[in-house]
Specification:
InterPro entries: Papain-like_cys_pep_sf. This is Permuted papain-like amidase enzyme, YaeF/YiiX, C92 family. The termini are far apart. The protein folds into two domains: 4-166, no CATH class; 182-355, Alpha-Beta Complex (endopeptidase fold (from Nostoc punctiforme)). It has helices spanning 4-25, 28-48, 53-77, 86-110, 122-126, 130-153, 156-165, 182-190, 207-216, 273-289, 297-300, 311-321, 338-341; strands at 196-203, 222-226, 235-238, 247-250, 263-270, 292-293, 308-309, 349-355. The chain has 13 helices and eight strands. A hairpin with an 8-residue loop joins strand 3 (235-238) and strand 4 (247-250). The chain is α+β, with helices and mostly antiparallel strands. It is 52% helix and 11% strand.
């Protein structure tokens, strides 16, 4: 049990055998499954690192980006050439190298912080009390539930969807301009008699929101803003549903219905007519200047340009712009559920909830 050298030797031989099998017998499906398994394993290892939460988040984000790159490469290049081709094996070698990158990244980044898992000795096991053992079992069960949630959230299909959509995004320049029409602003101005603005949080089931849920550990992972109760003016920062570029876009409730339990919750917040005018004018300004969805900001918690935001960041900044914010937090750190959970002074009023499949 303490003979770690023998254990390490066996593990090294096993890794080499797996690489040989992948080189000569691996097909696209096997490479996809191995990449996803390694991803889940590295996520678990990252969670176990004894370091600050932000550092662990950076590491997890790097694994997500790497997995997207791996799946994109496998889908586009892995079996482009015939089996007997020299380039076929070159592509497979590159694919195998990509599979090993998470381990190289972990070793490079955490070399001074990470301690390898080890098997305890019999003496160490004998010193464990029943309560400590029970606590350890509960901890393992909790982690396994978390891994199971990650597995369900990051299916191969969803990762392929994210990988295909990723090139549409930009976190350094504006790519969306003028997606909101004059007709939209006419409807928004018609709502000025309504003394409220409306904050919407939603559980959509989109590939992106399911990925975000891994980090936020929340059910509702999208936030929107509207100027009327019927949500004819609902807007937010989103992916544009492949119709418009990612950034500030008008939304339609039916686009939120991407899984069986999709739902939205609508709250209202008292606002003066002048505040609503200022908000509409600000939205129009962003629409004309340009915008982009802040994909990197989900982890980095900052924006390269003012109009590069993610959904909850946008809603909070709009509230703050007209002095309607009811909690204090850096805009890049605001999660969709913060808009409700941090309403300690009960400024929001519940309006209604919609279950989109009922």
């Amino acid at each position: 049990m303490n003979d770690l050298k023998e254990y390490k030797f066996i593990m090294d031989i096993s890794k080499i055998m797996i690489l040989i099998i992948l080189l000569f017998y691996g097909d696209k499906t096997i490479f996809f499954l191995v990449a996803c398994f390694i991803f889940l394993l590295m996520i678990f290892r990252a969670i176990k690192i004894n370091s600050r939460k932000r550092f662990r988040m950076y590491l997890v984000f790097m694994y997500v980006i790497l997995l997207i790159g791996q799946l994109t490469f496998f889908a586009r290049n892995l079996f482009y050439y015939e089996y007997i081709s020299f380039f076929y094996f070159i592509n497979k070698i590159v694919a195998i190298f990509l599979l090993s990158l998470p381990y190289l990244i972990e070793r490079f980044i955490t070399i001074s912080k990470y301690t390898e898992f080890y098997f305890p000795s019999v003496q160490e096991i004998n010193t464990l009390s029943f309560s400590e053992l029970k606590s350890a079992i509960n901890s393992v069960q909790y982690k396994l539930k978390g891994i199971d949630k990650i597995k369900n959230s990051i299916s191969v299909d969803k990762l392929e969807e994210i990988a295909k959509d990723f090139p549409r995004h930009s976190s350094i320049k504006y790519i969306n301009n003028g997606s909101l029409t004059e007709e939209y602003f006419k409807v928004a101005n018609d709502s000025l008699k309504d003394p409220y603005i409306y904050i919407i949080i939603s559980n959509t089931g989109s590939a992106a929101s399911e990925l975000i849920s891994i980090f936020t550990k929340k059910q509702y992972n999208h936030a929107s803003l509207a100027f009327d109760l019927d949500l004819e003016t609902i807007i937010s920062y989103n992916g544009g549903e492949k119709i418009y570029p990612p950034g500030l876009n008008r939304e339609m409730i039916e686009f939120f219905n991407k899984k069986k339990d999709s739902s939205i919750i609508v709250y209202k917040l008292k606002a003066s007519q002048q505040q609503k005018k200022q908000l509409i004018a600000k939205v129009k300004e962003i629409n004309e200047e340009g915008s982009a969805y802040n994909m990197l900001g989900l982890v980095l918690r900052s924006s390269y340009k003012p109009n590069i935001m993610f959904c909850s960041q946008f809603v909070y900044k709009m509230l703050k712009y007209v002095d309607l914010e009811y909690f204090s937090k850096k805009d890049g750190q605001v999660k969709p559920t913060d808009l409700v959970e941090l309403d300690y002074h009960r400024k929001l009023e519940f309006c209604y909830e919609i279950f989109l499949n009922e």
